[in-house]
Design goal:
The protein is an alpha+beta fold and 697 residues long. Among the domains are: 102 residues, Roll (PH-domain like); 246 residues, no CATH class. It is 27% helix and 25% strand. It has 13 helices and 26 strands. The strands form 5 sheets. Strands 11, 12, 13, 14, 15, 16, 17, 18, 19, 20, 21, 22 and 23 form a 13-stranded antiparallel sheet that branches. β5 and β6 form a beta hairpin. The radius of gyration is 29 Å and the shape is globular.
Length: 697
């Protein structure tokens, strides 16, 4: 009773990008089980601006920071709130949870469970259809009767023994069958009428039931791990349990019938199937275009992706999409809603990873192989923060085959580090603007130029090639990436399959590297991005290597966006540098001489890329190709953006059809297939080698 008092006070409430966070006066009415808010305390006697029924709600502290939490009502409505500090958040969360539990149990007592039976739909033709008489306190689950199994009075639940894992497996199989029956029952509903298969509450039930089955399978696997550890001894102190991939076969579990049929609105239109033959690689037939850097102008676009308004307004569309997917499904051929798109192509996103050209050029200035490897690791870890536009997880445009992106950067030579103590610049944004203006009066001898080109070389599988070079410093990087995206329940995983090669021609060194996986988490609430996986960097000539681990948030304990790594001399297995921190915040480097250095990524200077104006770009260059989609998204016109996006896809289908009829293979413009990879047609290592040969002759 001490914890059931009414509480009130100011909290910040998030609405959308336009209004952002606003202070509102909140009142927890324990007697009524309501969370109400007002504009301010003086208007408390007026009608509340908003009210949430807490019965059946879920109160969730956020992983983003220690101040934020969400209240998810059974009706599907959500409040995203922020307290002034961690202590205040805990106070509100605990009181809200107590009130929620009290009123949820009260409803359970007033509505005893029905007799055990399978899921069955409520009467569809009744005038009391829940589709007509939905109340805020109702939940989609209340439309169904669920089988309950009670233990005899006084009987205690026995401790889980190894033999009981078999019983758990049988229960899981029964749950899978019931969930499958539930999905079929919902999809058998008519598409119009009082209660339809597109009802928002039913879509929520379908989506969350899939996530629940995934969670149950994770838990079952954890039980198996615990049993195995008990046989070898207890788990060591401080062990964290991470989210796991499902270890139980879910074959046909989410197939709604004999065949998987997706509605037209989520089927990806028949797109180009461009098969690149490894035995007979296609030679370049389209003449590559030489881009003049003097035609490029400093980029003035600054499209931050922090707007959640469209996502919140289109939540029913997201639910409908998720309800049709199954765990592990490849999303390459699934058309995602236009409103979750970033205002840039994936090819341009790869260019944004090069936003610190001073650090890139400084790699070759390292005096020793050890220093050059450390500088490369420092540059590599600082590139991901700028590659993301804001904290919200949105998806870049899928490049169409043949799409290209060109840009360059100019960096004053005085800003590029030469000694070991100054290889991470930290100009403020205002200083960086001054640097950009200073370039206007400088000659070509006063600055370095880094050129970048990217091309979508294949559509199925989706493979992108990109290349960057600094001719003055005789260094270049070539990479190809195949993006494989999968549905993981309440998140989406993207595996970056491929390899990159950094060439330092002044030193005759080559560094191979890979890219981490990316995950879009909490796709039903506030989507956010985290990186995960192990990345290796290796230089065969010098014998130095680096191992970098991007840690995903553990299921229990741990921090967000954590990264650790070390640089080794392979011959002696000596660690010459260690790094730890967050890839989007602060990194700490510890060197073999005992010195340490902290780098705040949010304060690092960002050099704006230079791009040609739209009128000078080719029809297949990213910004010109997607300009109408981008303009519509900036204007908030989702329907118009979808229309332009569909037109591009239709054009791609027609071109593919024509090539199929004429048996004309697709030929790339800038990249050639070599083995399993793609290489720029005129890499710097070839041109430098040719010049040296001529000089020798």
């Amino acid at each position: 009773s001490d914890h059931m008092e009414n509480i009130y006070g100011y909290l910040m409430k998030y609405t959308n990008l336009v209004t952002g966070w606003q202070y509102r006066f909140f009142v927890l009415n324990n007697d009524a089980g309501l969370l109400e808010y007002f504009v301010n305390e003086q208007s408390r006697h007026l009608k509340p601006r908003g009210t949430l029924q807490l019965a059946g709600a879920v109160i969730s502290p956020s992983d983003e920071d220690s101040h934020t939490f969400t209240v998810n009502a059974a009706s599907g409505e959500q409040y995203k709130l922020r307290a002034i500090d961690a202590k205040e958040r805990q106070h509100w969360v605990s009181r809200l949870q107590i009130c929620t539990q009290h009123h949820t149990e009260a409803i359970g007592k007033n509505n005893p469970p029905l007799k055990s039976r399978s899921f069955s739909l409520a009467s569809q033709g009744s005038a009391n259809s829940p589709g007509l008489q939905r109340r805020p306190s109702q939940n989609a689950v209340s439309f169904f009767s669920v089988g309950h199994h009670r233990l005899p009075a006084g009987k205690r639940v026995p401790i889980m023994q190894p033999d009981h894992l078999v019983d758990v497996r049988e229960m899981m199989s029964q749950a899978e069958g019931q969930q499958r029956d539930l999905i079929r029952s919902i999809e058998c509903l008519p598409v119009s009428g009082h209660l339809t298969s597109l009802d928002q509450d039913l879509l929520m039930l379908k989506a969350t039931s899939m996530a629940t089955m995934n969670c149950l399978n994770d838990c079952f696997h954890i039980l198996q791990l615990q049993h195995a550890s008990q046989q070898k001894g207890s788990l060591p102190a401080g062990t964290t349990i991470s989210w796991l991939e499902p270890k139980i076969s879910l074959t046909n579990h989410f197939k709604n019938g004999a065949a998987q049929n997706f509605p037209a609105e989520i089927n990806k239109p028949a797109s180009v199937r461009e098969e690149q033959s490894a035995a007979e690689p296609c030679q370049l037939t389209r003449e590559p275009e030489e881009i003049n850097p003097d035609e490029e102008l400093e980029d003035i676009c600054d499209d931050k992706e922090d707007d959640l308004g469209a996502v919140e307004e289109q939540r029913s569309v997201i639910l409908h999409l998720l309800s049709q997917l199954k765990l592990g499904m490849d999303l390459t051929r699934v058309v995602l809603p236009t409103f979750i798109l970033e205002k840039r192509s994936l090819l341009e996103m790869y260019a944004d990873f090069m936003s610190h050209p001073d650090l890139f050029i400084a790699i070759t200035n390292g005096a020793t192989p050890e220093e050059r490897m450390i500088r490369f690791v420092e540059y590599y870890l600082t590139s991901f923060h700028e590659g993301r536009k804001g904290a919200i997880a949105k998806k870049p445009y899928n490049p169409i085959i043949g799409e290209t992106f060109h840009c360059s950067w100019r960096m004053p030579k005085s800003n590029v580090a030469t000694d070991a103590g100054s290889n991470l610049s930290a100009h403020s944004p205002s200083e960086q603007v001054t640097l950009s203006r200073d370039l206007e009066g400088q000659t070509e001898m006063d600055y370095y130029t880094v050129k970048f080109v990217a091309e979508q070389v294949s559509h199925h599988p989706p493979v992108s090639g990109f290349y960057a070079e600094c001719v003055e410093r005789k260094m270049c990087v070539n990479a190809h990436v195949w993006t494989k995206s999968k549905f993981l329940g309440m998140s989406i995983g993207v595996t970056m399959v491929g390899e990159g090669l950094l060439s330092l021609l002044e030193h005759g060194e080559e560094y191979t590297f890979s890219l981490p996986c990316a995950y879009a988490r909490s796709i039903l609430t506030v989507p956010w991005v985290e990186l995960g996986g192990k990345v290796n960097i290796n230089c065969v000539k010098t014998g130095y290597s680096a191992s970098i681990n991007f840690h995903t948030k553990p299921f229990y304990g741990g921090k967000l966006h954590r990264v650790t790594g070390e640089v080794k001399q392979n011959a002696t297995n000596t660690v010459v540098c260690r790094v730890q921190g967050e890839w989007n915040s602060v990194l700490e480097f510890t060197y073999s001489n005992g010195e340490t250095k902290c780098v705040d990524l949010t304060k690092l200077s960002v050099t704006r890329k230079r791009v040609r104006p739209l009128e000078k770009q080719g029809p297949f260059e990213s910004r010109r190709l997607w300009q109408h989609v981008t303009e519509s998204l900036r204007d908030g016109d989702i329907d118009k953006a979808t229309e332009h996006k569909r037109a591009l896809e239709e054009r791609q289908r027609n071109e593919e059809r024509l090539r199929a009829e004429t048996e004309t293979p697709w030929c790339t413009k800038y990249f050639l297939k070599e083995g399993d990879g793609w290489v720029y047609h005129k890499p710097l290592w070839k041109t430098v080698s040719a010049v040296q040969t001529q000089d020798t002759n």
